[in-house]
Specification:
Helices cover 30% and strands 26% of the residues. α5 packs parallel to α6. The longest helix has 15 residues. The protein folds into 2 domains: 174 residues, Vaccinia Virus protein VP39 (Rossmann fold), CATH 3.40.50; 184 residues, 3-Layer(aba) Sandwich (Rossmann fold), CATH 3.40.50. The strands form 4 sheets. The protein has a 7-stranded mixed sheet, with helices on both faces. A 7-stranded mixed sheet has the order 12-11-10-13-16-18-17, sandwiched between helices. The protein has 11 helices and 18 strands. β4, α5 and β5 form a beta-alpha-beta unit. Keywords: Cytoplasm, Methyltransferase, rRNA processing, Transferase. GO terms for molecular function: N-methyltransferase activity; nucleic acid binding; S-adenosylmethionine-dependent methyltransferase activity. This is 16S RNA G1207 methylase RsmC.
């Protein structure tokens, strides 16, 4: 082996790149260090990595000799970054990207986890590992101390009999869990609001409820607009749990909808939401970074509640990227209906990237605008 990979070489691309945003940090290095001895005693296919943001854990372990690694990353951009980093820096790495489920962890003896900020997401991960991994599995779950809470310890103790906590290093810490308990595999959480059934796996934005921004958007979406056919579906962009798509399909019995999100948890949640509302035949849910599967100038209506986080970092560079792809997909005269935190002042960006923009509604926190494609 050529020796450990220099993790500072890794890039975040195609995710947002900017000064201060890194592809690997002290938590990744601590997880690799704490798990090194355990990883040295396992065979091919017995290592699983969950939540590896841009490939630091997968490629770090692979440079140490791990082969046939199974990987789950919630963000599709993370999968793309891992692939790009591997091609550039470790082309011999052998790994497979998989959904979160029993097949991901079956027979795993070591699991590395980059701790999610959502306790529900951690609960789903812990239950998946405990219910399907090998009985002697050891889990190394780490993160930055500023993003960790004692409640994370409680979540892991709910799925494992033994939990040890490392000393902090580089403002990071690792939780080590052993002896899985008999727990059930995770199922989506259920809620009902405004006549809609909502389903949410851990980590999906807003959980099994309608967030206040989406609620404002739903109150003002147009009832009569072009499109809505199978060839020109209305698009729920960055769909989250699929609330807008489900609302459109239930309010308009003949409308076809295309819902898209790059988050695996969001897509699984949206599919469950659509099924719970009985509109599966008219709604397509896709996992996609942006709207890359949609042709140029092919849509009459797009709705968007854009995220403003890139991983754990708040960034004003996320939404403009989505605005630009919505503009690409819209026909001339097509409309982007968008809700955004008023403090972010997106209207000039929408005017520049999409076209003439007017305010539709505003409350103390959020603004709804419609932008017409030039």
């Amino acid at each position: 082996m050529p020796g450990p990979l220099d993790l500072s070489l890794l890039r975040r691309w195609p995710d947002v790149e900017a000064p201060g945003l890194v592809a690997a940090d002290a938590a990744d290095r601590l997880i690799l260090d704490e798990s090194a001895a355990a990883r040295g005693g396992i065979g091919p296919g017995e290592l699983v990595i969950i939540g590896d943001a841009y490939g630091a854990l997968t490629l770090g372990a692979s440079s140490d000799g791990a082969v046939d690694v199974r990987v789950h990353q919630d963000a599709l951009s993370g999968e793309a970054a891992l692939t790009a980093n591997a091609q550039r820096w470790l082309p011999g790495a052998r790994f497979t990207s998989m959904p979160l489920g029993a097949d991901l962890v079956a027979g795993a003896r070591v699991v590395l986890i980059r701790l999610p900020r959502s306790l529900d997401a951690l609960a789903d991960i812990a239950a998946t590992v405990a219910s399907a991994a090998a009985p002697d599995v050891v889990v190394f779950a780490g993160g930055r101390v500023k993003h960790m809470t004692l409640a994370m310890n409680d979540v892991l103790r709910g799925a494992f009999d033994r939990l040890d906590v490392t000393h902090a290093r580089g403002k990071s810490r690792v939780l080590t869990a052993r002896t899985p308990r008999a727990v059930d595999a995770p199922v989506p959480r259920a809620g009902r609001e405004d006549g809609l059934e909502i389903r949410a796996y851990g980590g999906a934005f807003a959980g099994a409820r309608i967030d206040i921004g989406t609620r404002l958007l739903l109150r003002h979406l147009p009832a009569d607009t072009p499109g809505g056919t199978s060839d020109d579906p209305w698009i729920d962009f960055a769909c989250g749990t699929g609330v807008v798509a489900a609302a459109w399909a239930t309010r308009h019995p003949n409308v076809h909808v295309y819902a898209s999100d790059q988050s695996a948890a969001a897509v699984a949640s949206a599919r469950a939401t659509i099924a719970a509302n009985g509109v599966t035949g008219r709604v397509v849910v896709a996992r996609d970074d942006l709207l890359s599967a949609r042709p140029d100038a092919s849509a009459s209506l797009v709705a968007l509640n854009p995220p403003f986080h890139s991983g754990a970092a708040v960034s004003d560079r996320v939404a403009p990227r989505l605005f630009a792809d919505a503009a690409r997909v819209l026909r001339p005269g097509g409309e982007l209906w968008c809700v955004w935190n008023s403090a972010l002042r997106y209207r000039p960006v929408l005017e520049r990237v999409v076209g003439p923009t007017r305010q539709i509604a505003r409350d103390p926190k959020f603004t709804v605008t419609v932008s017409r494609r030039r």
